[in-house]
Amino acid sequence: MNYSLVFALGIGVLITLYFARIYLSRFKLIGEQNPLRNNHQEDNANWQLYYFHSPRCGACKKITPWVDEQQKKLPNVISIDISTENDTAIKFHIRATPTAVFIEKNKIIDVQLGSSIGETMKEFIEKHGSTD
Questions:
Q1: Closest by CA position to 128, among listed 47, 58, 17, 65
Q2: What is the pLDDT of residues 26-69, one digit of tens each?
Q3: Domain count along the chain
Q4: Residue 20 domain boundaries
Q5: Which of 14, 24, 84, 126 would you label with 95, given CA atoms 20 to 30 Å apart?
Q6: Would the CA dihedral through 71, 99, 27, 127 be positive or negative?
Q7: CB atoms < 10 A from the CB of 127, how many?
Q8: How far is CA 66 from the centre of its chain?
Q9: pTM of the shown model
């Protein structure tokens, strides 16, 4: 029996399970109340978009400037740096960056992970359009 092959296979399975756990954890929040509903002025807003990023994240470096631009125009777009606001990231169970949390009427309706969230965020903002 080739023990190095068995060992490599075992490590591969553990890595796969780890990343599957991160990916599947996003579904845990959907349908839950906004954990920060009492912390922001936008409490009465019909929608909110929380964008979690970190300074060392390569994908975040591409998306963050666009999100910062949106945040200046729309107070419902909230950018959170997990390296400085770790408590907030823990409340949302954020385990990877970039992550976007979409909220309507104080309920989490979707959580997206990874470098492809930019298009989803654009569509969400276009759909809701204003701070109403």
A1: 47
A2: 666 787 888 877 655 445 578 999 999 999 999 999 999 999 99
A3: 1
A4: 3-128
A5: 126
A6: positive
A7: 10
A8: 15
A9: 0.75
